[in-house]
């Protein structure tokens, strides 16, 4: 048996390779064309809101603050001052001021930079200024932006604007928000342009993002659940857009639906797990504690809101009616519990310190966390870490049994030390000064690690490098 030693001539091999390249190119072009055709078809024939979705949702949506707690559905034909008043309440429920106010002297005029993995997005002016705001927008333009993520000029909006949640808000409620915004003082201000790298500065690419991360359509009550549950679902899934901070994201920066409310990091702050898991989430919180936290920013022996959550309480949830707050809690109790791997609830760590005695007469060299704590923190939080004022509204909170100190990462504690706390509610005016300008990164790290080791989760710590990175976050919440 002879061995075949024949070989393909070099010229024919080159021809074959060229054919293969052309075939692969034609295949990819065909696949892309089919995908583009599907996108076009989806845009033209995608899901539309059913007519009944736009009807008033009986007791399943935010009541105006002036209405009694047991009020029935708001009539579809609310007009005039009642419409504006309702719109103001809904605007607060959506916390629109948080993103559209960079300078408190220019409310709703935009200009807030939002850092993303793809660059910086700057929020627009939504005052009724005709030149720089939305004064020339029609109601149809506003509805399209809220429900479809498309601006007045047909441009696709970036999902830093949470239209993926706002799409669930009924037309009547969107128009109420629009009516309220029309009453604001017009502010002539053009925010800076976005700073996004190519190709993410190409808005048309959002069609592909929407294909995988966005479903257009209004909220439909679930008859299997109570009116209170539906009311909470409408708020949480829609205007309150709780998913946006408390749900981790996929590589496209869309929300991971399989991990809803399990916690995520936003601008350096850890938005904690709010599922009913008894260890990692809020499963062992009482309903009244959760309501109190949303209404005041504080739940004694549990947590005190700071950073973006402190802002949510101050600008939004403190204004919600007791019915709406209880409805939110009812809905959150029903979502699937998700474990984060913690071994103990965040609020169950810590014991009082006695370091001040050991420090007396001791010569300290280098950066010492205990010494820095006594010098900078003990006046308000007590050198034992037990706080001052017990559970009074204006109390300085205990660092023991404190979810920020007992968390599995120390980001929020370091951020509080760097940027302080400012949370004003009808309940109390809470202020902690920022130490970022007085303390170096290694000093902030030393205090953070001392506090977590003594009063919180001893396995939680930060490095000097991590503190340096946290210091550079675009939004130092005040």
In short:
With 478 residues, the chain is mainly α.
Written account of the structure:
It contains 18 helices and 9 strands. Strands 1-2-3 form a 3-stranded antiparallel sheet, with no helix packed on it. A two-stranded antiparallel sheet has the order 4-5. With 478 residues, the chain is mainly alpha-helical. The radius of gyration is 27 Å and the shape is globular. The chain has helices at 10-45, 80-93, 96-100, 139-148, 163-166, 171-181, 206-213, 227-239, 243-246, 287-296, 307-315, 322-334, 355-359, 369-376, 378-381, 411-419, 441-455, 464-471, and strands at 113-116, 119-122, 195-196, 264-266, 269-271, 298-299, 303-304, 421-424, 429-432. Helix 8 packs across helix 12 (322-334). It is found in: Cell membrane. It holds the Pfam family Cytochrom_C.
What order do the helices and strands come in, and which of them pair?
Elements: H1 10-45, H2 80-93, H3 96-100, E1 113-116, E2 119-122, H4 139-148, H5 163-166, H6 171-181, E3 195-196, H7 206-213, H8 227-239, H9 243-246, E4 264-266, E5 269-271, H10 287-296, E6 298-299, E7 303-304, H11 307-315, H12 322-334, H13 355-359, H14 369-376, H15 378-381, H16 411-419, E8 421-424, E9 429-432, H17 441-455, H18 464-471
Antiparallel strand pairs: 1-2, 2-3, 4-5, 6-7, 8-9
Helix pairs in contact: 2-6, 4-6, 8-12, 10-12, 14-17, 16-17, 16-18, 17-18
